[in-house]
Amino acid sequence: MAEPIIKMTGVSKWYGTFQALTDINFSVNQGDKIVVCGPSGSGKSTMIRTLNWLEAHQVGKIEVNGVELHAKMKNIDQVRMDVGMVFQHFNLFPHMTVLENLMAAPMWVRKVNRSDAEKTARTFLERVRIPEQADKYPGQLSGGQQQRVAIARSLCMNPKVMLFDEPTSALDPEMVSEVLETMIHLAREGMTMVCVTHEMGFAKAVADRVVFMDAGQIVEENDPHSFFDNPQHMRTQEFLSQILQH
Amino acid sequence: MLYADTVESETLVHKPSFVVGMLLIFTALFTLFDLTESLFGHLMRPVIGEPSEAGFLGSLSVGFLVGLLLTINVVAIGFVRFRIQVLIVWAELFILFMAFFYGFDLNFEFIRSKIWFMVSQGLVTTLYVSALSITLAAMVAIVGAVAKLSSNGFAYAIASFYTSFFRGLPLLMQVYLIYLGLPQLGYVIDAIPAGILALTLCYGAYMTEIFRAGIQSIPKGQWEASRSLGFGFGLTMKRIILPQAFPLIIPPTGNQFIAMLKDSSLVSIIGVWELMFLARTLGSKDYRHLEMLVTAALIYWAMSICLELIQSKIERHFRTKSH
Ligand SMILES: Nc1ncnc2c1ncn2[C@@H]1O[C@H](COP(=O)(O)OP(=O)(O)OP(=O)(O)O)[C@@H](O)[C@H]1O
Ligand SMILES: [Mg+2]
Fold first, then answer.
1. How far apart are CA A14 and CA B314, in angstroms?
2. What pLDDT is attached to residue A27?
3. What is the number of other CB atoms lying within 10 angstroms of the CB of residue A40?
4. Model confidence, pTM
5. How far apart are CA A51 and CA A54, in angstroms?
6. Going from the N-terminus, what domains does chain B have, and what CATH number goes with each?
7. Where are the alpha helices (DSSP H) in B122-274?
8. Please, are residues B23 and B68 in contact by the beta-carbon 8 Å criterion?
9. How far apart are CA B303 and CA B131, in angstroms?
């Protein structure tokens, strides 16, 4: 069996004296689609952000693409190139057009020449179905369009795995579906994905596994069918009954 | 512009109460100044008789005439478009200002004989000393700002010591320290390099703070997005953070440049032949101080106006780019 793309072993993390992650064991194989959910403040963002080391962990081991992440490493940028990340608030570069946003990292990080970068960028804009917005600035787009640009921006780097941290929770309801559609499409194409989201429809449609976190720990991890129909833990049941009410 | 209201309010200067109030205040003011001896007094001769013997009624009627003219002027300006208003008010204030200088009874022949030298020598020196200093100061400021924001204790300590020292001492003292102090250490330094060095270090310290604030105001999400795409620290700074910080940095930097233009007059004390130096030396030889000072003042002002225009052009460029 091939090595997992992401492997966390016994990972703990503290913010000062507050322990945000406790003994996390978790791995992601090539092609896996994993949904992470849990109540607010349970450490979902913290966990997903340690995977490309936007947050540092203190105890345990995190390996991404076979490279261990730690404070003394020299090639963190090399690791991050292959790990796409999509944020709740898009974080597009407001001083660049949509096309420039997509071309920036391939050109300056991967050193792809301009015309190839532009070709790739236009292909991915086509894929997220907003080719006509190429020359606009992010501030001129709707939230849903901005998030699709953000997804395309990550895809332009041809990542091995994509991380999503609540990509739809800053969006108006009518824009959620257009972003989810893009993500489902991406999943069907075989992209390896880790998604923090409360969109249970998405989880049922594409997830191989659902991870439930509470108070910095992974409480339950299961395939979506068992997870939704037959949750094992009290806290999972409570959480599910809460979010499924709406 | 501030947030523009969609509903038009009544023009203030057309409100009857405001117009009457204005007329009363102007009349009172000019009556108090007693303009009977002025040009207006002489024009009013048919009404008030011999100006010098006109008494209170005379000065009241001249005051009323001048007040009325001014009020009509203000009301009339209220009718035209914004741009024209700005132009007219600027022109009128400028004429008043020139009339004030004219009242000094200056010798224009003398000014004409010296002005070319002042421009070709003084203005050029002032401009190039300032331009070079502000460019170097901007480079110092970028390094200083990054150092002040870094978690490296050495970098932070050196940068904060630097900004503290050079913001804490009067510029004049820094000029002396560099020009007279360095030779003590065995480095003889010419007046112009000494001046440029002093201005660079002093303004670099102020601009370090401007740049630091500009860099800090860029949201953390921009760093995270950039770093997560594989941009290193330097690349993020150069491509993502600084380009966004620039529009915020430009207004206060323009301000600093204008201030420097005039602070560069301080280097005249070590004998740099810039505007202020020439204004003093050329004037004192022929006991024509005021002529040279007024000329230099107007040249400084003209330069500042040019800079203001350039600055607003750059600001507009950035504004149209991101909206
Ligand atoms: N920079 C920080 N400094 C200190 N504490 C933090 C920091 N970031 C997060 N925390 C704490 O860590 C805990 C986990 O935060 P995290 O953002 O991972 O939660 P989350 O599961 O993503 O919640 P949400 O669903 O609201 O996004 C929270 O209790 C939070 O207060
Ligand atoms: Mg979160």
1. 46
2. 93
3. 7
4. 0.81
5. 8
6. 2-95 (no CATH), 108-322 (1.10.3720.10)
7. 124-149, 153-168, 171-176, 182-184, 191-216, 220-228, 233-236, 242-263
8. yes
9. 12
Tell me how far apart the alpha carbons of residues A79 and A69 are, in angstroms, rounded to a whole number: 9
**pLDDT greater than 60 at residue B238:** yes
Contact between residue B160 and residue B148 where contact means Cβ atoms under 8 Å apart: yes
Mutate to test the pocket of ligand 1, among A13, A14, A15, A40 (most ligand atoms within 8 A of CB): A15
pLDDT, residue A246, reads 60
Which pLDDT band holds residue A80 (cuts at 50, 70, 90)?
very high
A209-214 vs A217-222, strand pairing mode: antiparallel
Has residue B287 got a pLDDT over 70? yes
Tell me what the mean pLDDT of segment B292-304 comes to. Answer: 88
Q: What pLDDT is stored for residue B183 in this prediction?
A: 86
Rounded Cα distance between B166 and B164, Å, is 6
Q: How many residues does chain A have?
A: 246
pLDDT in tens, A53-74: 999 999 999 999 989 998 888 8
Residue B272 tokens, joined: 């740099």
Nearest-CA residue for atom 31 of ligand 1:
A41
User: How far apart are the CA of B140 and the nearest CA of chain A, in angstroms?
Assistant: 25
Q: How far apart are CA A158 and CA A162, in angstroms?
A: 10
Pocket of ligand 1 (CB under 6 A): A 15, 18, 20, 38, 40-46
Q: Looking at this protein, which amino acid is placed at residue A57?
A: H
Chain B CB contacts of A83 under 8 Å are 228
> Is some CB atom of chain B closer than 8 A to the CB atom of A154?
yes
Whether residue A30 lies within 8 A of chain B, CB to CB, comes out as no
Residue count of chain B, please give it: 323
The mean pLDDT of chain A is 93
Say how far apart CA A231 and CA A121 lie, in whole Å: 42
Please answer whether residues A223 and A35 qualify as being in contact, where contact means their C-beta atoms are separated by less than 8 angstroms: no
Query: According to the model, what pLDDT value does residue B121 have?
Result: 83
Residue A46 Cα: closest atom of ligand 1? 18
Please tell me whether residue B141 adopts helix, strand or coil conformation.
helix
Residues in A touching B229 (Cβ below 8 Å): 80-81, 104-105, 109, 153-154, 157
Q: Can you tell me whether residue A214 is helix, strand or coil?
A: strand
Phi then psi for B134, rounded to 5 degrees?
-70, -35
Residue A63: how many CB atoms within 10 A of its CB?
17
Residue of B262, B268, B280, B281 whose CA lies nearest to B175: B268
φ and ψ of A15, to 5 deg: -100, 105
For testing contact with chain A, the best of B222, B227, B228, B321 (most A CBs within 10 A): B228
**What is residue B111's predicted lDDT score, i.e. its pLDDT?**
84
State whether A54 and B231 contact (CB < 8 Å): no
How does pLDDT run across B109-143, given as a tens digit for each residue? Answer: 888 888 888 888 888 888 888 999 999 999 999 99
A78, A81, A94 ranked by CB distance to B244: nearest: A94
Give B220's Cβ-side CA count (13 Å radius): 2
